[in-house]
Amino acid sequence: MSPRGHNYRYGSWHDGPDPLAAPLDVRGAALDVGRSMLGGRNVRDAVRELLRRGQRDRPGLDELRKKIRERRNQLRKRGNLGGALDRARAALDQALATEREQLASEDTDQARFDEMLLDELPDSVSSAMQELDSYDWHSDEARQQYEQIKAGLREQVLDQQFNGIKQALQNPDPEAMQRVRDMMADLNSLLAAHARGEDTEQQFADFMDKHGDFFPDNPKDVDELIDQLARQQAEAERLLRSMTPEQRAEIESLIEQAMSDVDLASQMAQLRDNLQNLRPGMMRGQGMPVNGEQPLNYGEAAGVIGELTDLEALDRQLGQDYPGSTLDDVDVEALERQLGSAATRDLQALRELEAELQRQGFVRREGGKLSLTPKALRQLGESTLRRIFADIRSQQQGRHEEPRTGSADDRTGAYLPWHFGSEQPIDAVRTVTNAVLRTAGDERSDDRLRLVADDFVVAETERRSRAAVALLVDLSFSMVQQDRWEPMKETALALAHLVETRFRQDALQIIGFNIMAQPLSALELAEVEPEWVQGTNLEHAMLLAGRHLRRHPDAEPVVLVVTDGEPTAHLVDGEPWFDWPTTPACVRATVRQVDELSRYGASINFFRLGEDPGLERFIDATARRCGGRVFSPSLRRLGEYVVSDYLQARRGRRGAA
User: Fold this and answer.
1) 3-state secondary structure string, 171-215?
2) I need a surface site. Which of 114, 483, 589, 643 has the fewest CB within 10 A?
């Protein structure tokens, strides 16, 4: 008994969610989605990739589909679909052997004549049974064996179509079979009325009151009843299509004979036509190969085909490769039937993960379109920046501190003694406090407080240079082809996060360029997808960079260029002009913009990706012209180089002056 009077009972865990399972790693999932986007996917595809792959300790859709395929292979090896014919043939041979024994014991001309008839029976089981329909059996046992062939097949066919009919056929007396015939007639009447568009609500209710025991799934309306029947009929159709043409012809003939004996053949044909009319799409499935050794009777074979149909649908649902697909499409009951409750828990975890990404504000859906949120972008930038700082060897670079203190910037919270010539602001409160403490034990003739030089303190301030930074990133398709797209985006987002969180006084503008250049926010860059366009318009990017820098005349101007190709496009009368190989006109236009930025005082540094000789010649010459530097980092270290250069460049010539 607990102190509060509650009783607790403990026992072994049997089933249900794992009580020790780790909680959903939604933040990790958001990072995975973000990284997939940086690699060129849109948000929807990135989320889909996450669900496909799963997380470290949670299987994804791919793992569930793998189990589906394994289960499907097991079923395909379970047995032989021709087993119904094989069993019918064996039973017929047994009946004929019993009949021949009886004929051999009779010394009559009729017995000899009937022996000749049996000897001339065709090899086909269905054809032989057609001829035996009018045969006058001498052995009651043989006749019963023969009738049991048709009765057994009839029971299997009806039980496959109507799950609750087996009970009625356990004692197939005339009264029981009449109930089946009445149900079939009423069912076809109901379906025909529904197909004509009539209101069948009351007719359906009357039908279920009268024949509900044939339908243990208890459909709630006509449409649900039709769906159930159509699925069963589709299984039967797919079973027949899975057989060889000879097997199919034989089994269809046997079924026709079995149903005709009890006046059900026409009703079954009418039911098939009604379902084909009401649910045509469900009847179009292809046959399925089942190549096992064990013979299956009709009911067993139909069950295998039904399970394979379930697995085929589950594989499609879990694949999520069709328009408008969601995890809500997955048939949970079918999944549990095929793979067990653990698979349904895995699916539920993926559903919760997808929902939590939206609920916790990492992705949002607007107008049916998924997009990344600023929260997810911040987390992605923070994660990338943390990795970059871990790679930067110098802690001084990582902390980005100037050793000097200044007079008109942010206070650090520390205080310094005042000296003659100090530029920092005097802290009046702390100065007076020092004077009070110094004179606390003195006797004073008045209330005046006298200050001395040692009482004065100044507030320590931190000199922080301000920079206007233009980060020019190449968006040409070669960046995707050479796997440079993701490192480029990671670098830009890390720099944006650094500016946003530690250097808010700086003004950063990301400019993406291919055939044209455009200013991009960090979020827009994260979501930009590759375009199959030719052209590297560095001139336009430099032009936009100059406009950005001039909007911040009091800041240190910094231009950082990340590219993997020489300029091949420039503006002519405001329109892009592409040439390959690059032309002197394109080079001149680009260099003209570089010169404009140099005259403005901007530091321009280049980060060359790849070993393109044309790019190397152009960048080296341009850097010498503008006094910039050229870096050739590996993709892994691109972010480290760009961030380090930013931290150094923002202390540039104006800050040092």
Assistant:
1) CCCHHHHHHHHHHHHHHHHHHHHHHCCCCCHHHHHHHHHHHHHHC
2) 483
CB 89 within 8 A of CB 149: no
Instruction: Give dist(CA 484, CA 474) in Å, integer.
Output: 10
CA distance 104 to 108: 10
Number of domains in the chain: 4
For the stretch 334-359, pLDDT in tens is 888 888 888 888 888 888 887 877 77
C-alpha dihedral (616, 619, 625, 631), degrees to nearest 10: -100
Q: Do 384 and 639 meet the contact criterion of CB atoms below 8 Å apart?
A: yes
417: helix, coil or strand? strand
Structure tokens that stand for 149 in this block: 């062939």
Parent domain of 651 = 467-656
Pair 360, 473: CB distance under 8 Å: no
- The CA distances from residue 31 to 348, 596, 635, 637, in Å, are 21, 40, 20, 20
544 with 552: CB under 8 angstroms? no
Cα 179 from chain centroid?
50
- Looking at residue 408, its pLDDT comes to 42
Question: pLDDT tens for residues 63-112?
Answer: 999 999 999 888 888 778 777 888 888 899 999 999 999 999 999 999 99
In this structure, are 97 and 64 located in the same domain? no
Residue 388 belongs to a domain = no
| CA gap 529, 477 in Å, rounded | 10
Q: What are 651's strand-pairing partners?
A: none
Q: Do residues 89 and 228 both lie within one domain?
A: yes
DSSP string, 351-381: HHHHHHHHHTTSEEEETTEEEE-HHHHHHHH
pLDDT of residue 368: 64
Instruction: Write the single-letter amino acid at 80.
Output: N
> What is the Cα Rg of the chain in Å?
42
> Of the given ranges (86-100, 195-209, 437-451, 550-564), which has the lowest mean pLDDT?
437-451
Q: CA–CA separation, 22 vs 33, rounded Å?
A: 20
Residue 298 included in any domain: no
Instruction: Identify the bridge partners of residue 415 per DSSP, sorted by sequence position.
Output: 459
Q: How far apart are CA 579 and CA 571, in angstroms?
A: 12
d(Cα 114, Cα 194) in Å, to the nearest integer? 52
**Cis upstream peptide for 581 (omega within 30°):** yes
